[in-house]
Amino acid sequence: MPRHVRICCTISMLWIGTACGSSTGPDTIMGVYSLRTIDGLDLPTSLVISASCEVLLSPAVCAETSRLEVRSGTLSLAADSTYRILTSIRRSLPSGAQTDVTSDLRGDWSLQGGQVVLVDSLGTHRSGTTGSGAVTVDVVPGQAWAYRK
Description:
By secondary structure, this protein is of the alpha+beta class.
């Protein structure tokens, strides 16, 4: 076989192997991710009550809350296209007392146009980016929550 034909065949096989071996489907990002930052701030970090509380906790709990501090969190993207966001929160009351609570958000996830899209049981859409073992999602509107495997 002439040398130029062998080179073309080798290049073609490498290209086919790369194209067929790469995957852009949901299985490429499945797994459990740990919350690292919110809007670039390391944990623990405080959240603005008005923008955050009712997304993470019930309205009744929010009415009695003067401060929220996110302590830790995980994002799980499962093979059955469901997600779960668990967030450990320290809640401060106007009296100064503190209680630890856990926010548990669940729903379905998908990849659409290179973005991860989370839709909860109420139909709320959250979207974000993926890449290099990380997922960044606006769990609370306007707040980038960065998770890493």
